[in-house]
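Sample log: glutathione transferase.
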Amino acid sequence: MGYKLYYFNGRGVAEPARQLFKLAGKEFEDIRYDKDTWPTHKAEMPFGQMPVLEVGGQKIAQSGAIFRYLAREFGFYGKTNVDHALVDSFFELYKDYTNESRNFFYIARGMREGNKEEAHEKEFVPARDKFFGAIEKQLKHNKSGFLVGDSVTYVDIQVADHLHSLLAVSAHELDAFPEVLKLKEKVEHLPAITKWLKERPASDF
């Protein structure tokens, strides 16, 4: 069964899917569109947006649906239904965090005008402390180094990938969350991920 992953020429919200493929040792077509070619393909996508995963001719939209599908297929979803629910709960919390902090990242990356320091203190810091505080607490409770169970899940991949981007913007942003930083290192030292990080196309985000 052939896999195709459609996204822009960057990491963005498709990157955890790419890393799940690499962890599983599964081949896939990494199809990337730039801003000039994307408009001619937009109508081909189920909801007119990306990422989209194509499996045997069937296109699946929405990053969360894609991650959960791949996690089930490849064994990165925990071992029980309770594990599945816990993994999903942290992914939903991550989505809350990104919604609450998005304006800060747009300003920090020069994609939107605004006061970076003000957005950091008023928008990002509360979102950061809520999300990473919960992640830190869970990692201390679980004791395996992963968020759920004793092996890597798609939400570990999601968090570690985000940290790669966050720490590039603000290197000491998470100094108060040592277990979270250890999670990033643990994921990035998985052999398949280490290899992918070295060979993947360079991009700002």
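Observation: The chain has seven helices and four strands.
Observation: The domain at 3-74 is CATH 3.40.30.10 (Glutaredoxin).
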